[in-house]
Amino acid sequence: MEFVTLDRLDDRYWPAALVLYREAFPDGKPLRVLENTFAKGVGYLHVELEDGEVVAMALTGKLPKANALLIDYIAVRAEERGRGRGTRLVREIEREAHAMGLNGLILEAEVGPEPENEKRIRFWEGCGFTATPYVHQYIWVPEPYRALYLTFDPKKPLPADGRELFRHISSFHSLVFRTARGSSDSE
Question: What 3-state class would DSSP assign to 73?
C-alpha cells in the first residue's frame, strides 16, 4: 500500500482517480471546477495505491483563514469498501495536513434520515471528527449538510460553530467555482 499526495492533476494518477470520483459522485463538481481548484493553487489530490493501482482517492482544499484542510471528496473502489481503506486515507490526509502546519481538517456531509447519510456521519465520527449541530441548506442543491471538524491541537482549536465552518467552506466553493480569466461558465 502506498499513498501519494499531489498539488496538481497529473497524467499518472488523475485519470484513474477521476474514474473513481465519477463512479462515487456522478453529480459531483464539473471537471472544470476541479481543474480550477488546482489552477488556483488550493487543491490536493490524494491517492491510495495497491500494486500501483488507485484504490482510493480524495480531493482536498486549503482553507487559509481557518488554517485547515477541507476534505471535499473521498472515494474508495466499491469492491474495496469495508476494508479500512477510507480510514487509512483519512489518516494519511491528517498526516499531510499536520506536515503542512495546519490546525485540522474540516468537511461537510449530507444529513437526513437516509441510512447512507447516517452511516457517513458515523464513519467520520469514527475517524475522530466532531459533528456540529448546525444544518446548512445551500440554495443550489436540495440536500442539507452538516459541518464536521477534527482539531489536531487543543491549544489551536478549529471553530466548533457550524455556521463559522460553513463560512470557510463556502469561501472555498466560491473561489473554485469562479472561472479562470478568459473562460466562461458554459465550458
Answer: strand
